[in-house]
Amino acid sequence: MNILIIQTAFLGDAVLTTPIPSALKKAFPSCKVSLLCTPETRDVFTENKDLDEVLVMDKKGKDRSFASLWRWGKDLRGRYDIAVIPHRSFRSAFLAVLAGIPKRVGFANSQGRMFLTDLVDFDWKMHDAERNLRLLEALGIRGGVPAVLVNSSADWKVLASAHGLKENVPWVGMNPGSVWATKRWLPEGFAAVADALIREMKCQVILFGSEKDRPSVEAAASLMKETPVNLCGKTDLKSLAALIARCEIFITNDSGPMHLASAAGVPVAAIFGPTTRELGFFPYGPKSKVVELDMSCRPCSLHGGPVCPLGHFKCMKDLTPEMVLAACRGLL
Q1: Side-chain half-sphere CA neighbours of 210 within 13 A
Q2: Which of 81, 78, 130, 89 minimizes the C-alpha distance to 113?
Q3: Is the CB of residue 99 less than 8 Å from the CB of residue 76?
Q4: Average pLDDT of the residues of the chain
Q5: Do the Cβ atoms of 125 and 146 come closer than 8 Å?
């Protein structure tokens, strides 16, 4: 039996897909499990021992056209018996049809549900890792605790030496960026929390982020009175995962790195503005706290957006450094 998992969404979605291959291999030890992802999330899966093959589709680049999707379908045709599709997109479901995969399992609220043979209810009351495992009920697999895991062979000691990180002091990771502007807490908030923790813990604050996060990260760094280590744009996904796993605590916006930290078992203080934990994308596991305000306008969207729809952005502006520090102290 050959099974293809299709997950071409964001980094956090990719991390929360990792329980699926392990559950499949546990239930069907002799099956072949392949996974289709994007170049940005490939390294979430490349060292996953439960995957036999990782396929990479550059849907925002050379594979963005319909002609390319058709070629992918042709290349995959006849290779798989089952498609498991946690990504609720039209394109992902349509690809499974183009590939001629006879059994296509996805969520009932997928944009491509008309192409699916087996529909599974999408329960907003569940964490997304648990929701994803529910897809396997269509294959007779029920129950079990999601094993969210991202393996990285990168050596944190080598990375620490390369980036001038001290091994003999606590590491506090911070992620001031996010894909969506309204998910970003204020840089002065991150700066205040970083300064306070350096003074209290005698720790080393490490600022993480991709090149796209540079404005947010540098804004926070410039407002600090103490000196952080700024690794923005200096890590790939494997080194990011390895360094985050070494942190005593990770302070972050609602983002992909938040899920990397949670998967590594690192205590997470997650700052939520336009999104809420009730949507199911909060850091998974007992070592986490979501810092958020009780406001009638939250959540305003599933992913956040470029601007506050009401124009006040109070969900982030009114969230204080003292609230985040209290969460951090409760985790340390």
Answers
A1: 11
A2: 89
A3: yes
A4: 95
A5: no
| CB neighbour class for 104 (10 Å; exposed up to 12, middle 13-18, buried from 19) | buried
State how far the Cα of 308 lies from the Cα of 315, in Å rounded to an integer: 9
DSSP string, 229-256: EE-TTS--HHHHHHHHHT-SEEEEESSH
23: part of which helix (H) or strand (E)? Answer: helix 19-27
Model pLDDT for residues 208-230, shown as the tens digit of each residue? 999 999 999 999 999 999 999 99
| Pairwise CA distance, residues 180 & 305, whole Å | 5
User: Between the CA of residue 147 and those of 55, 277, 318, what are the distances in Å?
Assistant: 22, 19, 35
Could you write out the DSSP letters of every residue in 161-201? HHHT--SSS-EEEEE---SSGGGPPPHHHHHHHHHHHHHHH
> Which residue has 């203080």 as its token pair?
269
Q: Per residue in 105-143, pLDDT tens?
A: 999 999 999 999 999 999 988 999 999 999 999 999 987
**Calpha distance 25→278 (Å, rounded):** 30
| Domains of the chain as residue ranges with CATH | 2-139 (3.40.50.2000), 156-331 (3.40.50.2000)
Helix axes 321-331, 187-201, angle to 10 degrees: 40
Write the CA distances from 198 to 69, 133, 173, integer angstroms. Answer: 50, 40, 12
What residue spans of 31-139 are helical by DSSP H? Answer: 42-45, 66-76, 90-98, 128-134
List beta partners, residue 171.
204
Q: Which residues pair with 269 in a beta bridge?
A: 251, 289
Reported pTM: 0.93
Q: Which of 168, 105, 171 is nearest to 132 (CA)?
A: 105
Q: How many CB atoms lie within 10 A of CB 156?
A: 19
> Can you give the length of the chain in residues?
332
